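REVIEWER CHECKLIST
Item 1: Sequence provided? yes
Item 2: Single chain? yes
Item 3: Sequence as submitted:
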Amino acid sequence: MKRTTLLVTVGVSVLALLALVVGAALANTPSGVSAAPVTATQITRATLGKFEAENNAIEVESGRRSADLAIVKVVLERGGSTGWHHHPGVVLVPVKAGTVTEYDAQCHKSVYKEGKGFVESNSEVHLVRNEGDVKAVLYATFLLPSATSPVGLTISDPQPKECHKQ
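Item 4: Structure as written out by the authors:
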């Protein structure tokens, strides 16, 4: 049971990173702005099926449907932006290198440096930017419905009226 929970936890982390990476690659390019390069590379994807796991007060379950785990490496050059987007599942995103700033639809910002991370869920619209001086590297681990196409890991959204970040 412990090994299964650890594998699921690692898998969920990998999927979150994948979501961010694919999101960076597929999100809208801000209009009128020449965005710095953002690259997303899917590292792996696997079907977990239906599952329930818990260990040390951390619980994960797929509910009534099959879930996939996907991991994506996202590289944001200085000034790079993912564009406004959301994801169909839960995404865990550790920052491997550099610093990124995440903006929500109300333009609230959160800054994440190397060694920190964040969670994206509930179809929340957001944008991730590299406002630092060096390239940022993220690993999005996605936990998402198995029926989600590779292109569907990230869903582009229009820029919110409340936030002018791109």
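Item 5: Key structural point noted by reviewer: Residues 2-156 form a domain with the Jelly Rolls fold (CATH 2.60.120.10).
Item 6: Recommendation: ____
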